[in-house]
Predict the 3D structure of the following.
Amino acid sequence: MVRDGTTPTPGSIPGPSEAALQVRRLLSRIGFYLFIVIVGAYFALPMLWLVFAPFDPHPTLAAAVPSSVTLSNFSDLLKNPNALRSLVNSIVLAGATMVLVVAAAAPAAYALSRVRIPGRDLLLYVLLLFSSVVTGTAAMVPLFLLVFNLGLINTDVGVVLVLAGGLMPAGIFILKDFVDSMPKSYEESARVFGASSFQILRDIVLPYARPGLAVIAVWVVVNVWSNFLIPFILIRDPGLMPAAVVVYNFYTEGGQADLRLLSSFGLLYSIPVVVMYLFVNRRYGFRFYGGIKG
Amino acid sequence: MADLEIRGLTKIFPGGMRALDGLDLQIQDGEFFALLGPSGCGKTTLLRSIAGLETPNSGEIHIGGRDVTRLPPAARDVAMVFQDYALYPHMTVADNIAYPLKVRRVGRKERREAAESVGRSLQIQGAMLDRRPGQLSGGQQQRVALARAIAYRPHVFLFDEPLSNLDARLRLEARTFLKQLQRELGVTTVYVTHDQAEALALADRMAVMDQGRIRQLDTPSNCFLRPANTFVAAFIGSTPMNLLPATVQEGTFEVAGQKVMIPEAIRAKVSVGDTVILGVRPEYVSVSPTELPGSLTGTVRVLENLGVDSLVTVEVGDLRVQATVPEERVPAVGDRIWLAPDQRRLLAYRQDDGEQVGAPKVAQSDAPALVPGAE
């Protein structure tokens, strides 16, 4: 019998008998596993539903193995003119926002890391704090008016600008941490060898911060992909709507959620993000970045 | 190849820290020049000013007769090896070595050839060229940093403590290698170090710096044998020089109530009643178990084994005097012994400014005199 060190040996310390301890330990084990199972199921059930329901001819809200497997849900989905186009729209929006954020945040992070200006850190923290407001509900009305006055309502450009503006501060913040961790001597030696600021950025700073750039890129794509509010407010034309908004339109004539379309579309909607995650993880590997140094 | 001239160089950092104070310096073409001093003495600031990484407040820097004071680092034709080597972790060894050529837009094939040929002379070859710096040992990284500087074909090499990250044995090997390499290349070299042994071993000439000023500018052997002042005397030498307060009497110095003969060379420069600081290296103090004429006597307090020699610390009155003794003549702790300083190696410094007796007085009211032995 294996006994761990914390268990008192009978006789040395007066206490419950050996048998009672065994029972108590067994019960606590059972309780623990039960808890794990419940928590696991809570998170796993929606995933199971997403895997089974799209192939079920009559899906319900319960996650159940379908009695017969069908692809008719997908063929019906393809008949909806906005479904596939919305996925393309999402890719365009996410891609454009990602390029804009990375292209602007990288030089900004480099400059903020290297230039000493009073109140720099405060500025960054304030930006970070208020950036969630930009993409949140609080600024919904002013944002709409701003984009309306710019004449960018119902355009991808309007959505990309608002989302990029909201995501930029956090992007700069994370990237600055990467650039901060780079020894100054890297740039100085390059400068002595005659490299221009642009060459230093291209040859040394960006490659050094590459894992950081990958983190930012993935994070921006995931954020844009799942953002419902901004495109919902700013885009009127169903042909321009991204997937997150189009999902909202899958109702039956009776006004009920069309689970056949919703489930099959949900599966298609989640695949690109998973694929991207696998690709980036393979290529760069995710670690804890930002804040933790050394 | 170029000589290097610095005139009245002053650098004041924001906050008022005066890192360089009107510094003048001339370094010959092809010379191996060491800048030595304690941390914060301004030696690294001087090196970075030569590289163009710091902008001096006033003064001029000329490289090969060309005024480069206002030129960016790129236009100065200098290569710098940093203390941490500054090898780019994402590039291979070959790419690191050839990076200066990439900046100049040299083609890929020529860059590879250059990296191979420079690498070969530094024993960086074969598979090593395709590794990343992180996969190399400290000594190999140091050679890659050297190779990169050589590939740039500069007029001046600037070294910022390039050996300080190596362990002791490797540092000695690298030191010999570096000196030989500099001889072969014949490139003017400025070498910053806080290690006096490194400066003595490597340099043709050296400057000992303190508080943004040069305290002595001379050959290593002169800096060692005839330190210009108590600062240099205390800084140079692996065993610190004995610095003993003394008063001048008729024909003798009085040290801790005992008498030492005044050497012929000094006699004319001092007068009776002067207070001076006597300087003599432990290596130039002979030790005897019996009385010697004109010697100090005291009791052995500490024995330190230095390998070939032992360092003996002797209490003479209220002073402590150190001497090295060969292994077969090591006394025991508590023994009474006699110490005779070598008359040719005995130096005397003024009490007030710490300069050698007879040296011209420098009008420096703010330079505090170092008075060792008084603490």
Notes: Confidence is low (pLDDT under 50) at residues 1-5, 288-294 of chain A. The radius of gyration of chain A is 26 Å. Chain A touches chain B through 18 residues (CB under 8 Å). Residues 18-70 of chain A form one domain.
